[in-house]
Amino acid sequence: MQRLVIWIPQVLERNIPLLGICFGHQLLAEAMGGHADYHPKGREIGTVSIQLTPEGKQDRLLGALPDDFLAHTTHAQTVIKLPPDALRLAENSFEIHHAFRLGDSAWGIQFHPEFSADIMRAYINEQSASLLKEGHNVEELKAAICNTNTASRLLKQFMAIVQEQD
After folding, report:
1. Which positions ≥6 away from 2 have C-beta within 8 Å?
2. What would the pLDDT profile of 37-54 be if each residue is shown by its tens digit?
3. Over the stretch 52-94, which tens digit does the pLDDT of each residue have?
4. Which residues contact 6 (CB under 8 A, 6 or more apart)?
5. How far apart are CA 33 and CA 122, in angstroms?
6. Is the model more confident about 165 or about 23?
7. pTM of the predicted structure, to 2 decimals
8. Domains assigned to the chain
C-alpha cells in the first residue's frame, strides 16, 4: 500500500487511465489528499441503487451509465473526504462518494462492477452471522440481489478509454 500511495500520483501526472474499485477507490483518495475511514453508518452490502450526480452524467466513464443504476456493494470503510479538485460523480442515500474523478483519467468507485449476482450472494452468505449482529436483514439482502449488467458496462467503457491512450 505504501508503494501504491507513491505510485498513484505518478500515474495521474502521466495521465494514464486508472480505475480504483472499493479499497482502490479509498487508496486513490488517500494518495491524493483525501481521507478514508470507517463509514459512520456502518456497512453497505447488497445490490443497491446508485445515482449519478450532474457531473457524473457528463463524465466520459460514468456518463455511459443511466442516471440511476443497480450495483453490488460491500464495504464498511469509505472515502470520508474527497481529495482537492476531485469531482463527485455518483451517490446514494447511504454513500455520498460512490464515485469520483481526478483529472481526466483517474476514477475511484466504491461499488463493484466486477461482481456477479452469485458473487454478491456468496459475500452475504459468508458474512450472514456478522450482518445479523449489525442489524441487517439477511433475507431481504438476498432477495434484492440481481445481475447488474448496467454497472458491469463501466468496465468495458474503462477499457475503451484505455485503448484510446494507445
Report:
1. none
2. 999 999 999 999 999 999
3. 999 999 999 999 999 999 999 999 999 999 999 999 999 999 9
4. none
5. 34
6. 23
7. 0.95
8. 2-165 (3.40.50.880)
Q: b/e string for 6-29 if b means 16 or more Cβ within 10 A? A: eebeebbeeeebbbbbbebbbbbb
Alpha helical stretches, state H, the chain: 2-13, 23-31, 54-58, 117-126, 128-133, 138-144, 149-165
Whole-Å CA distances, 62 to 4, 6, 48, 56: 24, 26, 16, 6
CA 164/CA 111 separation, integer angstroms = 24
DSSP structure class, residue 77: E
Give the relative orientation of helices 2-13 and 23-31 as an angle to the nearest 10 degrees. Answer: 70
CA-to-CA separations, 68 to 9, 71, 91, 107, in angstroms, rounded: 31, 10, 10, 18
Question: For 115-151, what is each residue's pLDDT tens digit?
Answer: 999 999 999 999 999 999 999 999 999 999 999 999 8
Query: Active-site positions?
Result: 22, 112, 114
